[in-house]
Write a structure and sequence with these properties.
The chain is built from 10 helices and 8 strands. Helix 3 links the parallel strand 2 and strand 3.
Amino acid sequence: MLSRSEHIRELLKLYFIMGSVNCRLSPADTLLQAVNGGITLFQFREKGPGALSGAAAVDLARQLQGICRQRGIPFIVNDDIGLAEMLDADGVHVGQEDEPAAAIRRRLGADKIVGVSAHTLEEAQQAVSDGADYLGVGPVYPTSSKEDARAVQGTQVIEQLRRSGLSIPIVGIGGITADNVTPVIRAGADGISVISAVAQAPEITGAARHLLHKVITSGRT
Ligand code: TZP
Ligand code: MG
């Protein structure tokens, strides 16, 4: 049997993040096609201009969670711990501006997945001691999917975290495509998190399949 962190590493290989504003097709069709292409984890992130709120956001979350449940893909909620609790989601992902990971861990219990965005070694160490299961590190490359994204950091921070001895599962995020995924994995990430490379792809299933193949074959130096 896989250990908890080995299991998380597997889930992070192709972590698809999306909300209604990111989609070219309907969110449900987008997710179904992405699942068919082999995504390993899904995050519901209903954010940005034009995002749904209130009951409409909850309804969409339920619909997407249903697809994930049917296909055995864990369903993670971005930011909204209350929504995650209401839906009994598999976990949450929070940024540095959100509720501290230690409080979330206490609230959700040991079984749920808690992910934290980290941009520096200090933030990463804090997240580890707070009980995070994985770190999202980026933006690795320029992105247009997040308005308030931090400065682009390349693969440097991932390399720095690994050099410092941190072994927590890490997923790279920000502007990642099939053409630039290899350095992210070689820097020490266990997988990639993408919005547009899947949600905006002309052919979603094929794009996801290709990305997963790239992650798996990129290996470590
Ligand atoms: N956090 C850092 S970059 C980013 C988030 C949510 C957006 C990633 O989207 P894309 O389209 O894969 O660059
Ligand atoms: Mg957040």
